[in-house]
Amino acid sequence: MEQIKVDLQERSYPIYLGENIIPKLARDLATKYEGRQIIIVSNDEIFTYYGKELLDELTSCDIITEIIPTGEEYKTFHMAEQILSKMIRARFNRDALLIALGGGVVGDLAGFVASIYQRGIDFIQIPTTLLATVDSSVGGKVAVNHTLGKNLIGSFYQPKEVWIDVKVLHTLPEREWKAGLAEVIKYGVIWDKELYEFLEENSTDLTKDNLNLAQKIISRSCRIKAEVVSKDEREENLRAILNFGHTFGHALESATGYNYYRHGEAVAIGMVMAGKLALEIGMWNINEYQKLKNLLVKVGLPIDFPSEISREQIYTNLFLDKKIKDKKLIFILPQSLGQVEIVKNVNIEIVKELIQKFRA
Ligand SMILES: NC(=O)c1ccc[n+]([C@@H]2O[C@H](COP(=O)([O-])OP(=O)(O)OC[C@H]3O[C@@H](n4cnc5c(N)ncnc54)[C@H](O)[C@@H]3O)[C@@H](O)[C@H]2O)c1
Ligand SMILES: O=C(O)C(=O)C[C@@H](O)[C@H](O)[C@H](O)COP(=O)(O)O
Ligand SMILES: [Zn+2]
């Protein structure tokens, strides 16, 4: 089993990565948490697949489960309150543990609950989508959406452990696998040209049943995220680069009611929009912009959005972005593959026009 450390002094934690690792990790946990309260938060389908092996190993603990409806539209404060109520009714104490078993929606929502229940209890992330393994389970951004904007209510709250068992990919729908690849491609663009080239060279072999390759890209992605987060946990500066593609992507997700695009798909389109902005202000070159579009298309991701989606709404939503400083939008823009810049003073008229006329 591979182990990757997220180095954050007293908040440091391990990411365990391997195939079929859940039973052993759960057995160790059962010894540590004998007799203690644990809540497992999950979705129906995921719990059916992977809940039993957890429950079977945790028989010595005092377990409750909360199964939440599936979908980004349920990553809400209301749903968080529902989980909190269940824990209060079960008389959960501060030494209880929360386990988030699911994709990024479960992880963000359940992690947020862990961060506020009695001012914070321990939690473990068991990510089950590619996206959650490479991104959302690591780094401690936990949040719920508001109808007006993405992730507007949340905390920075690190898990105690992350368990990545690649076997979960076998049941993952194709569309979710592709959505996860968007965040992997993001790491290539923002940090690691070698990873980017590797993805290009292996684009046709990047299938979810190729577990060796999957583990390789998950490992590299987690290592990049761990490095960035350990340098800037609370996004004072560097961590903002992990938001490449998200300024436009989040605006698109909110404009479509959180149920049209998968997060990774919106990020794919957002990366192309950010790329185009970089081109227009002379920061990037057309060859690399084309390369990015080609790779996204090759792995089956969208790079454009249909005309029914309100461009005005996308523009308006930009102003709820959390990177805003001094009332100014901040964009993460590519300079070259493997390197981005945090850009503060983009002319807003260029942004407005880009959205109005956007064609990939
Ligand atoms: N906190 C962070 O740093 C961070 C990073 C990236 C994304 N996010 C958030 O993550 C969310 C998106 O997460 P997601 O893409 O994982 O989507 P998701 O959690 O909605 O999961 C996608 C779908 O896949 C199903 N599923 C999950 N695992 C499965 C499996 N192994 N087998 C079969 N079906 C499975 C789920 O039930 C769901 O229908 C967004 O809310 C996004 O904002 C957070
Ligand atoms: O971990 C981060 O930092 C990221 O930006 C990772 C993103 O992929 C992720 O979608 C995150 O939830 C976005 O955060 P937000 O602060 O823009 O809501
Ligand atoms: Zn993201």
Automatic annotation (TrEMBL):
The keyword Transferase belongs to this UniProt entry's keyword annotation: no
Domain 3-dehydroquinate synthase C-terminal: 180-323
Binding locations of NAD(+): G104, V105, V106, G107, D108, T128, T129, K141, K150
Compartments, as annotated in UniProt: Cytoplasm
Cofactor binding description: Binds 1 divalent metal cation per subunit. Can use either Co(2+) or Zn(2+).
Keywords: Amino-acid biosynthesis, Aromatic amino acid biosynthesis, Cobalt, Cytoplasm, Lyase, Membrane, Metal-binding, NAD, Nucleotide-binding, Transmembrane, Transmembrane helix, Zinc
Residues given in the record as Zn(2+) binding sites: E183, H246, H263
Swiss-Prot/TrEMBL cofactor(s): Co(2+); Zn(2+); NAD(+)
Coiled-coil annotated spans: none
Name listed for the protein in its UniProt record: 3-dehydroquinate synthase
